[in-house]
TrEMBL record:
Record domain Pyridoxamine 5'-phosphate oxidase N-terminal: where: 23-128
Species this protein is from: Dactylosporangium darangshiense
Pfam families in alphabetical order: PNPOx_N
Name of the protein in its database record: Pyridoxamine 5'-phosphate oxidase N-terminal domain-containing protein
Top-rank lineage group of the source organism: Bacteria
InterPro entries (alphabetical): Pyridox_Oxase_N, Split_barrel_FMN-bd
Length: 141
């Protein structure tokens, strides 16, 4: 099978971001220790929105570093995103954003105590399926 052209990779990536619910979120402590967890997300067309309890290692790492690496999809159809993180309190979201997040992910952190939201703006996006797609894996959304 021939590698997908850039436009097809963008289309496939946007579909994955719209349709998938869960991603692997990689962070690091200030001294560089890695941490990886699965979290549900909402894609709004420009950013990914995650939520987790403020006391978790992931939340502490995101607050400290303001960056994350995210993996979406299976290993043979992966989207990797490096992004800048904005930390949000539940009250920082519009009602529509909170409702959309709750509907897509199946849980509403606004009803939970001490949860934060994290908006990730992609700074680098890569998408590939097999080794023949490694060249050109950087895409622009």
């Amino acid at each position: 099978m021939a590698p997908r052209p850039h436009d097809q990779r963008v289309t496939d990536t946007l579909r994955r971001l719209s349709d998938d619910v869960d991603a692997w979120v990689a962070t690091a402590t200030p001294d560089g220790r890695p941490y990886l967890v699965p979290l549900s997300f909402l894609w709004d067309g420009d950013t990914l929105l995650f939520s987790t309890a403020a006391r978790t290692p992931t939340a502490r790492n995101l607050v400290a570093s303001r960056e994350a690496r995210i993996g979406v999809g299976p290993t043979r159809d992966v989207v990797l995103i490096h992004g800048a993180v904005t930390v949000l309190e539940p009250d920082d979201l519009t009602a529509a954003e909170g409702d959309a997040f709750a509907e897509k992910t199946g849980f509403d952190p606004r009803t939970l105590r001490d949860y934060l939201y994290f908006r990730v703006r992609p700074t680098r996006v890569q998408a590939w399926r097999e080794v023949d797609e490694l060249a050109g894996r950087d895409i622009t959304l």
